[in-house]
Structure formats: structure tokens, C-alpha cells
TrEMBL record:
Annotated signal peptide: none
Annotated ranges, domain G: 5-119
Hydrogen maturase F dimerization domain: residues covered: 171-269
SUPFAM superfamilies: P-loop containing nucleoside triphosphate hydrolases (SSF52540)
Name of protein: Hydrogenase maturation GTPase HydF
This protein's GO CC annotations: cytoplasm
Organism: Odoribacter laneus YIT 12061
Length: 394
């Protein structure tokens, strides 16, 4: 299940840090009457019973001052597109240009939000302010007090209504049935953490179990002997994208084949955009710049799929002089989307669907083709149509 990232934003001393402490039932953030106590974003994981695993993010005030204040505000602004949901805190019935500008940013990112009128023990939410804000922004405005959080259940219920993720969609549920056998091909190389599987593989195994199906996990070198000695015909083979070609050569053409990255792409959105964008690889020209978006930070090795293998294969396949740029984790975009001829997003196992879609939306709205690690590698190895055929049936 994806963790819902909830950012808490507002002016200094609006009670953001107090709220995160109340929501988690722990003293996570420092609380003080001194304006600007919170500087860098503070994150805390929490389980909302019966709803979701969440990460609350405490942020600096949007009214901070001075050069350091501007830097803190910039950090808060960077958090917005990384959020699945936003709680905007106001006090004293105060909603002015600063809040209006913040809401415009939130709406432009298509992120659901609630307005929380905090410190109601000092001054209650005025009915006219509530009605005006709810009418203007089509969202709920809740009167709240961190010192007497009797309506915390009302807040959680409002979040549930706006962000229905209590049951995440299955990765494979639409294409497999109970007792189906799936073959998961997981090469062990320098990219794999010692003694562990990488997250997409773990997620796939759990999803197969949830669907009462059977997973068989092996390395590429074991495929041929496994199929020969067992006689098992898997319902589906899912492989690490970087060994697509090697696996495809060993799996009979009548057995469906895809990759972990492509399965994740189907779950997280923009799947059809990926398909269209991947097919534009044949149109790349000399001098084009390709942006590779990574959703995590990691040490680069000679076997790195995004920074080494994909660029090398693209140059070889196209025969063109191509330029490559990389953005790790959820770092902000520094150039205009129009600077790129193609954007290739990793599988996105470390980010939520909302975060991934928010990241890609500027490119799609600008008409820049987008692809995915798995689809790109399938295309470059001549097995693209085969790799997406299970979802083309939908």
C-alpha cells in the first residue's frame, strides 16, 4: 500500500507543529510561540486506523521573512508537488492574498486539500468565512483546536472523503486469477541490496499472495532448466527490465511477458501516455536531450539501469548523438519541459501515484513524450508490443 503524504502548511504560529503532534499522538515537532521555529520540513510516519499509512509533513511558515525566510518558503513550496493531500491552516478568520496564492498553487497541482481554522479556543471560525471559503474553493473548512482536539475524527473523515485510498488497487488483480502461477525473474547484481530484494519485487510477491496466486522467483540463468524439468507453463512472466532480452529469448512466445516497471506504470497512471511516448523513440534526432527521472537516490554503478544502460542502448539503437540529464528523488525541475525531446520515468516504486503524476503532468501538458524505464528497454530490445499486450486487452 502506498503511504499517503499529507503536508501541513500555513503561516508561522498557526499551529502546524502542534497539529502534527496531535495527529500522531507524539511529540514529533518542536512547538514554540517563537515565529519560525520550524525551518526545514519535518516528516513523521503514522497509521490512521482503518484508513491508510500516512506521512505527515510539517513545514515552515509561508509568511517567513528575510533571506533565510525566503529559503524556508521555497522549501515549503517544493513540498507541495510531493504531497498527496494538503492541510492548510489558518487562524483568526484570516484568509488573505498569501493564502489565496498558496491555494492557487495547490489547485494547479491538482492536489486535494482541506482548510483547517486552528486555535478555535481563542477565536472560533466565523460562519461567513466558512461559507465563503467552502463556496469559493469547493472544499471543507473545519474549526479546530489542538488543545482540545475533540473533532480529530471529523478531520480524518474529511480526509477519507477527499482521498479515497483505503484500499489500493491491486497490481495484477485484473489479469490474474487464484492459483495462477507467475514466474518472477530477479537478477542479483551490484544494484541489488545485500541480503534483500528490491521494492518492486517485494510488492509483486505480496500482490500475488493477496490474489491467492503462486509466485516462483528465480534468476535468469535458471529459466530454461526450470521450464524443462518442471513442465510448468506460467500464466505470466515478470522480469527485471534490464534483462528483458535475455529473458525473452528463453520464454516461449505464447507465454505473456512483462516487467516489474511496466506493472508499476499501469498502477500509477499515465500508462497510455507512456505507450505513445515510447513509440516516439524512433523520431529522436541528433542533439536531442532526454531527461531520466529517478524516484529515489542511490549510488551509481556501472550496472545502473537509468544512468548507464538506457543511455547506452538509446545511442546504439538510434545511432544519434543524444544528450542525457538526470533528476533524482523528487528534486524540482530546473528547466522548461520544452528543453527535452523525451522524458523517461523510472518504475516509481518509491513514490505515490499522486507524486508521480504531479511530476509528469507539466511534460504531458506541454506535449513532451513520456516513457518508462521498462517500456523503453522493451522497445529497444524489440519486445515492446509483447510486454504491454496484457493491458492492451483492457
Amino acid at each position: 500500500m502506498e503511504k499517503l503524504h499529507i503536508a501541513i502548511v500555513g503561516r508561522r504560529n498557526s499551529g502546524k507543529s502542534s497539529l502534527i503532534n496531535v495527529l500522531t499522538g507524539q511529540k514529533v515537532a518542536i512547538v514554540s510561540d517563537v515565529p519560525g521555529t520550524t525551518t526545514d520540513p519535518v516528516k513523521r510516519s503514522y497509521e490512521i486506523p482503518g484508513f491508510a499509512s500516512v506521512v505527515f509533513i510539517d513545514t515552515a511558515g509561508i509568511d517567513d521573512t528575510g533571506e533565510l525566510g525566503r529559503q524556508r518558503i521555497a522549501k515549503t513550496t517544493e513540498i507541495l508537488p510531493q504531497s498527496d493531500f494538503i492541510l492548510l491552516l489558518i487562524t483568526e478568520n484570516r484568509f488573505e492574498a498569501m493564502e489565496e496564492n498558496l491555494v492557487r498553487q495547490i489547485q494547479n497541482l491538482h492536489i486535494p486539500f482541506l482548510i483547517l481554522h486552528n486555535k478555535s479556543d481563542i477565536l472560533s471560525l466565523h460562519p461567513d468565512v466558512k461559507n465563503t471559503l467552502e463556496s469559493r474553493y469547493k472544499t471543507q473548512v473545519i474549526d479546530f483546536c489542538c488543545r482540545r482536539p475533540e473533532n480529530i475524527s471529523e478531520l480524518f473523515e474529511a480526509i477519507r472523503k477527499l482521498k479515497q485510498i483505503s484500499t489500493s488497487p491491486s497490481l495484477l488483480g485484473k489479469i490474474i486469477r487464484p492459483r495462477d502461477i507467475l514466474l518472477l525473474v530477479t537478477p542479483i547484481d551490484s544494484e541489488v541490496p545485500v541480503g534483500r530484494l528490491i521494492l518492486p519485487q517485494v510488492q509483486m510477491i505480496r500482490d500475488i499472495l493477496d490474489n491467492h496466486s503462486v509466485s516462483i522467483v528465480l534468476q535468469p540463468e535458471e529459466i530454461s532448466s526450470f521450464l524443462l524439468t518442471t513442465g510448468i507453463r506460467p500464466r505470466l512472466v515478470i522480469t527485471d527490465s534490464q534483462v528483458f532480452k535475455k529473458v525473452a529469448e528463453q520464454i516461449p512466445a505464447n507465454i505473456p511477458l512483462t516487467s516489474f516497471s511496466i506493472v508499476l506504470a499501469h498502477r500509477k497512471g499515465y500508462f497510455q501516455e507512456y505507450i505513445k511516448g515510447t513509440r516516439t523513440i524512433d523520431r529522436l534526432q541528433d542533439g536531442d536531450t532526454i531527461l531520466l527521472l529517478e524516484s529515489c537516490s542511490h549510488h551509481t554503478t556501472c550496472e545502473d539501469i537509468g544512468r548507464v544502460k538506457i543511455p547506452a542502448l538509446l545511442k546504439k539503437y538510434t545511432g544519434k548523438q543524444l544528450n542525457f540529464e538526470f533528476i533524482p528523488a523528487l528534486d524540482p525541475l530546473e528547466k522548461s519541459p520544452s528543453a527535452y525531446a523525451l522524458v523517461i520515468q523510472c518504475g516509481g516504486c518509491m513514490v505515490t501515484s499522486q507524486q508521480l503524476q504531479t511530476r509528469l503532468r507539466p511534460f504531458i501538458e506541454s506535449g513532451i513524450p513520456v516513457s518508462n524505464y521498462g517500456m523503453t528497454l522493451a522497445f529497444l530490445n524489440g519486445i515492446f508490443e509483447r510486454s504491454i499486450q496484457e493491458w492492451e486487452k483492457e
